[in-house]
């Protein structure tokens, strides 16, 4: 284990400079300045260390991305070699670079067979912006330029750019900046605990009902005006909402019926998180487009993109002429070299199979045990994504009053006890690195149990 690079300054120094100059994403700037940021200095495997030397169990894989864990030498070597050889060249003007070609080839090998082409971007948000332009371009080339509308879901998350935040269904984001942009409409999410339970439906009945909301919206907008439906196989930032098994097959049927493109936003669910390479394989859909980012490089360097299925690719290639869209960093050679090393490592370590057969089912078992806790009303998991819903009364599943912000209380205890979990509404969620072992999952469950106990003590 190496010494931290950052020994010259104290935590207070870092915090003061941070507060003076750094505006953080999704942050109340003033509140953070008053409190002081946690300064994270080092990572190894599934653990992080902060500037106070505290070891932290990173049960969120950074931000759902560090799939292979921290400090993996093959990724570090790939970045170093590529930086030395060719740190940057673009993919505009009929040029290409070996790492971008290799990554495109490898993605085509790993993705479902209808995907033979990829368009690279720098992030998940840029990838979803690409989706909006690409599907509208597709329909224009198909002689149906009026097909402009994209349907997505409330409480979905598709990024933070104008199009990404518009596709997303986060009211707090729409309130700032006059969103959504025109041509994007939303339907309710397949969240059984929130909607189906209250409607008195079983999970499977509710899955069909939630899919029906798509058909209703299509008929309301007019099928001839709808370009695409986009959704995350499992909503991540919305609180790890695992849909009923009946949901996605029905969505597929509806998209097929009206000829609407299906877009699977796999920024979180891609590259093994659900126990398959892509979440669409776990839920049995055949999307026309897949957005990815995060896990493609395990977050070591920024990279995103769109896998373009043959239905769309053939039209863009054969009829499209120039697609007037792209980014300076589309196909960045260092990012792509790290992507290749990362995906090869996932394959070599058999992480996808491990999540499917071993760690995913084991985490589900640990979560079933956590359901016994007096604060926990419901548990959900899918592969290595998990959620606990906190309730005031386990008998009636009555929630806590919103002003108590129970999940934030719990998150505070996680913070103090060396565990990173995320709070969303009244849910506590995890998505540990795919390299996590059974013993480490035991450690995670014990930490969660302790934090729940401390939260319960506060709440009673
Ligand atoms: N799509 C999904 C499903 C995401 O979870 C995220 C980020 O969390 C994004 C898109 C946006 O990705 P980025 O933050 O890389 O722009």
From TrEMBL:
Transferase in keyword set: yes
UniProt keyword terms in alphabetical order: Aminotransferase, Pyridoxal phosphate, Transferase
Keyword match ATP-binding: no
Gene Ontology cellular-component terms listed: cytosol
Any Pfam family matching the protein: Aminotran_3
Cofactor: pyridoxal 5'-phosphate
Gene3D superfamilies assigned: Aspartate Aminotransferase, domain 1 (3.90.1150.10), Type I PLP-dependent aspartate aminotransferase-like (Major domain) (3.40.640.10)
Gene Ontology MF, one: pyridoxal phosphate binding
Superkingdom assignment: Bacteria
Cross-referenced InterPro entries: Aminotrans_3, Aminotrans_3_PPA_site, PyrdxlP-dep_Trfase, PyrdxlP-dep_Trfase_major, PyrdxlP-dep_Trfase_small
Family (UniProt): Belongs to the class-III pyridoxal-phosphate-dependent aminotransferase family.
NCBIfam families according to UniProt: PRK06105.1 (NF004767), PRK07480.1 (NF005682)
PANTHER family for this protein: AMINOTRANSFERASE, AMINOTRANSFERASE CLASS-III
Protein name in the entry: Aspartate aminotransferase family protein
């Amino acid at each position: 284990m190496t010494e931290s690079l950052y020994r010259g300054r104290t935590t207070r120094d870092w915090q003061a400079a941070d507060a003076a100059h750094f505006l953080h994403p999704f942050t109340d700037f003033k509140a953070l300045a008053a409190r002081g940021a946690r300064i994270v200095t080092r990572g190894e495997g599934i653990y992080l260390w902060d500037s106070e030397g505290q070891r932290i169990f990173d049960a969120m894989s950074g931000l759902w991305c560090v799939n292979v864990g921290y400090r993996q030498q093959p990724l570090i070597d790939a970045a170093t070699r590529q930086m030395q050889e060719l740190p940057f060249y673009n993919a505009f003007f009929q040029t290409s670079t070996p790492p971008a070609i290799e990554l495109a080839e490898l993605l085509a090998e790993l993705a479902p067979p209808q995907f033979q082409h990829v368009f690279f971007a720098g992030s998940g948000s840029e990838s979803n912006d690409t989706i909006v332009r690409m599907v509208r371009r597709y329909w224009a080339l198909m002689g149906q330029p009026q097909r402009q509308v994209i349907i997505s879901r409330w409480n979905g998350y598709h990024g933070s750019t104008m199009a990404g935040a518009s596709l997303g269904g986060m009211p707090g984001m729409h309130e700032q900046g006059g969103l959504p942009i025109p041509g994007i409409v939303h339907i309710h999410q397949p969240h059984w605990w929130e909607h189906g339970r209250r409607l008195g439906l079983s999970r499977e009945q509710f899955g069909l009902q939630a899919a029906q909301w798509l058909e209703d919206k299509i008929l309301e907008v007019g099928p001839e005006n709808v370009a695409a439906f986009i959704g995350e196989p499992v909503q991540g930032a919305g609180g790890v909402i695992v849909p009923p098994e009946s949901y996605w097959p029905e969505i597929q049927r509806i998209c097929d019926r009206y000829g609407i493109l299906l877009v699977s936003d796999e920024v979180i669910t891609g590259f093994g998180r659900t126990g398959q390479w892509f979440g669409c394989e776990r839920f049995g859909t055949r999307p026309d487009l897949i957005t990815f980012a995060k896990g493609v490089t395990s977050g070591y360097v920024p990279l995103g993109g769109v896998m373009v299925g043959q239905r769309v690719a053939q039209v863009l290639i054969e009829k499209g002429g120039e697609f007037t869209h792209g980014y300076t960093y589309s196909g960045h050679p260092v990012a792509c070299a790290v992507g290749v090393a990362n995906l090869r490592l996932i394959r070599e370590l058999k992480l996808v199979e491990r999540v499917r057969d071993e760690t995913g089912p084991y985490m589900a078992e640990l979560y079933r045990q956590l359901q016994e806790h007096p604060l926990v009303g419901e548990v959900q998991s899918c592969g290595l994504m998990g959620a606990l819903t906190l309730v005031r009364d386990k008998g009636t599943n009555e929630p806590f009053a919103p002003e108590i912000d129970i999940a934030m209380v719990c998150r505070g205890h996680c913070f103090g006890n060396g565990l990173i979990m995320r709070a969303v509404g009244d849910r506590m969620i995890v998505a540990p690195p795919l390299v996590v072992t059974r013993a480490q999952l035991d450690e995670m469950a014990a930490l969660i149990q302790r934090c729940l106990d401390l939260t319960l003590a506060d709440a009673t």
